[in-house]
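Following up on my earlier thread - several people asked me to post the actual chain instead of describing it. Fair enough. Here it is, all 356 residues.
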Amino acid sequence: MGFRIRKSIQIVPGVRMNVSRSGIGYSVGGKGVRVTRHANGRVSRTVSIPGTGISHQRTLRRSTSTQRTRTAQQSSTRTVHPASAPPPPPPPTSPPKPAKPGVLAPAWEKDLFALLQSRQPNDFIAVARKHGRSTPHARLLAAILEGLLHVELGRGNPQAQERARFLLGWAAAQDATRPLLDFVLEYLPDRTWPVEIMPAVTAQLRIVDDVVLLAVAELHQSAGDLPAAIWSAEQARPTTHAALSIADLYSDAGRHQDVIELTNDVTNADDTTALLLGLRGRAFAQIGFNDAAREVFKEALRVRSRSAAIRHRVLLERAQVDLTQNRKAAARKSIEKVLAEDPSYPGLSEALTALN
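Reply from S.P.:
Thanks for posting it. Predicted structure:
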């Protein structure tokens, strides 16, 4: 007869850790109802009437070994269809439900998850105050999520945008912690937020795509704080969206040589790279290399399927270079293309005035 080892340790009131030869399990609850996760992975719920000895136990999830056995049995009894008749398609499956905190998840995780469903930015302050002192990463996550919701929902609201700039600016200067990354990967793996990288270009970015850095860079740029905007964008991983943000900021700051160096070897592969070429051409024009600028603009306009807003921007930039070189006929042709397609395009009236 073998020995049996079992020990139950109370972690906090209502939560016990059960240690046995087969491993460690947990149980949550009190008199009347208790949920237990056994060492083999099985989860059960026990309902009892205190003082009577009457109880009922139900398995909520089977053990890992039992699940494997059932899967093997199902595989072994699978019907083999003749070659002439293809097997029927599998039944449609519903999309997996989004993950949500379990019974043993920490309170800050549950509170933040609940707020994600409400989409009320101002509610995150309470969570930050409640958990921030004992759990710093909860405060950081609350700041990020509130700031991103202000960016998404507060367009046209100066107070919301300034609040987002403050929160995301603070978050951008912090170090990402393991619990923060775990929360994002568990509950926000595919959640995206819109970030206007520059006029005519809005990207849908995830937290792991440096949405915080690129969003706050645009907020700083809108507020006129170019040094802070450039610092934020330069911290992002090297992607086309990050390059576009940095090139636009360098251009605004008059760092035209930096724009040229940043866009070396860029080809017209998509809307983003076409816009990068437009910024490169503008940089050449700003330092007096007009012929080089016109060649770059030619490459940016080579693919006609690019976004109309991007093509119009490049056409007006090229028209400015043509006017500088006294090529009024070429400038008129570019301006009239924009006029025919979008008479209300920003900057068109100024270009027409310069033409006349």
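The first strand starts at residue 6 and ends at 12. That should answer part of your original question.
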